Amino acid sequence: MTECAWYSVFSMKNALKIPVVFSAFFLFWSLIIGFSVTLGSYESLLILITDHAQTFFLIVVRQMLVYVPLCLLLSFFMVVLYLMRHKTILFLSIPLMCALAVVSATICIPLSYRGLDLFDASFSSITGKAVELSKSVHTAGFIRPDGSNRKIVWFDERFAGTRVLPVVIVDYGIAEGTPVLSVYPWAEYDPENTSLVYRGETLSPASGGVDPLVDLYTESTWLRNFAYSSVNALLSGLYNSTNRSVLAYMALSGALFSAVGCLWLVSHTTGWKLLNLILCTAIFCVILGGYSLVQEYVDGVVITSFIPYSGIDPASVVYAAFAAIVIIIGIPVSIFRVLKGQKETV
């Protein structure tokens, strides 16, 4: 076979891999986001630590359903980067990308919303379990500071967390330089005062409520809080659009996938792949985080006055306008680079 024939075979093979790449990354992002969001929650982490593994994994499944739209957008973006890295047949890869976007918007996301509603109806007790644990005695097995000169630990819980046993207290303040060890066979937990009591004696004044040792692992930075709130605003807007009308949902979801798909043109804007990668990643982050900015700073009345249906989200117009601008500018730039014979470098 000639070199041109081999090139056509590999290009077709790379194009046919697009659904596989999309599916693999969708599974990857679903697991990563499902577990990371669950472990970042105080209530969920407390459930895992207190040996309620089944409830914990049910929460992971629920979070995976919640973030299906985000995982689909991330997977679609990974396909864009795949096309930037691998040569494909244009007339095969573009229809496959369009088909993935249509299936995601019309089948996958609505099914995830339906599954989420069914899940919440079937496992409504999960929220109650989290609230119950957050109000109970702190988790057993951790050595905890109890005042400036004391440390306390208990090794087991009984009767739904109302009794702990045994309780060991080390007091460094009674005799200077010599810690005093006290062991109690059991102690009752007082939920009103969040204290441990043994035969009327208060052993620890703060042994319930929010566990500081568990809460330490769920502390987040401002960047994580900003990303979390921005993405959740987009997901909430997408979900709320389904309650308005099918047209409102299709407009927003279609504009979102169009904006992400048009990054393929951005990925071939310059002759440097690294610069193209940085541009695509930055714009993709703006697409995800820009929804809250549109809702905050753009007057929806002004935008929707130019379209016949006022129920459409203003962000739909913004995303669609971005996609149109990228297409209008990107196609001539790509044609110009092909005619000039410019090749991409690292």
Labels describing this entry:
single chain; alpha+beta; elongated; seven-stranded antiparallel sheet; 346 residues; 3 domains
Give a verbal description of the structure.
With 346 residues, the chain is α+β, with helices and mostly antiparallel strands. The chain has three domains: 1-135, no CATH class; 137-208; 220-346, no CATH class. Helices cover 64% and strands 12% of the residues. The chain contains 14 helices and seven strands. It has helices at 3-16, 18-39, 42-49, 53-66, 68-85, 90-122, 125-134, 212-215, 222-244, 246-261, 263-266, 273-297, 300-304, 314-340, and strands spanning 144-145, 150-158, 163-175, 178-184, 187-190, 195-198, 201-204. Strands 1, 2, 3, 4, 5, 6 and 7 form a seven-stranded antiparallel β-sheet that branches. The longest helix is centred in the N-terminal third of the chain and has 33 residues, at 90-122. The protein is elongated, with a radius of gyration of 28 Å. The two termini are 29 Å apart. The model has no long low-confidence stretch (mean pLDDT 83).
